[in-house]
Amino acid sequence: MREPALKPHVAGLFIAPEAGVPMQAVDAVRAVTGRGLEGDRYFLGIGSFSRWPAPHREVTLIAKEALDTLAAETGTALTPAESRRNILTVGVPLPALRHRRFQVGEVWVEGMRPCAPCKYLARLTDRPDLVRALTGRGGLRARLLTDGVIRRGDPVRWSDDLTTPVRRLPG
Predict the structure, then answer these.
(1) DSSP state at residue 116
(2) How many Å apart are CA 40 and CA 37, to the nearest integer?
(3) Residue 58 class from Cβ within 10 Å (0-12 exposed, 13-18 middle, 19+ buried)?
(4) What average pLDDT score do residues 94-115 get?
(5) 97: Cβ contacts below 8 Å, ≥ 6 apart
(6) How far apart are CA 75 and CA 34, in angstroms?
(7) Residues 59, 66: contact at Cβ < 8 Å?
């Protein structure tokens, strides 16, 4: 008998209070539109890329399946915290949610653009091969459309119609 598929959900939440410090796992975090996740370096305006403010830096997501595939295909194990993404998902087709609105717990977000791996991440993890290994599976950058609390275990929901992108929102 086949195991039932896991419902799409938040498997982990991570914030870092300063640029370059290790990400800390949290059970819940408050999301604030235009700012990001409370207590995170980008919320505080002190992230490594804060000097180039943009809505796509409010929150980042990565799929557990991408990290599992990375380890299986390349032998490069990367913990969710080491990925430096805020939200670890399970069962969520992150690439399909680009330019789409979706719900993470009680918070509505809009997928903005892929979260490509960078040399900064490779330097922090001391893994020079990471940029190449994570290409195409680095996650999704998103902006917050509503305020609220996101909790580990929260469901992630989206429209079944992933073929039609949302209209661009102002701002």
Answers:
(1) -
(2) 6
(3) buried
(4) 94
(5) 111, 140, 158, 162
(6) 37
(7) no
Q: Which residue has the higher pLDDT, 50 or 46?
A: 46
pTM over 0.90: no
Tell me the pairing of strands 24-26 and 28-32.
unpaired
Helix ranges, the chain (H): 64-74, 119-125, 130-134
Tokens of 43: 């919320």
pLDDT over threshold 80, residue 168? no
Q: Do 28 and 165 contact (CB within 8 A), yes or no?
A: no
The length of the chain in residues reads 171
Tokens of 144: 């917050």
Helix or strand or coil: residue 70? helix
- Give residue 24's pLDDT: 96
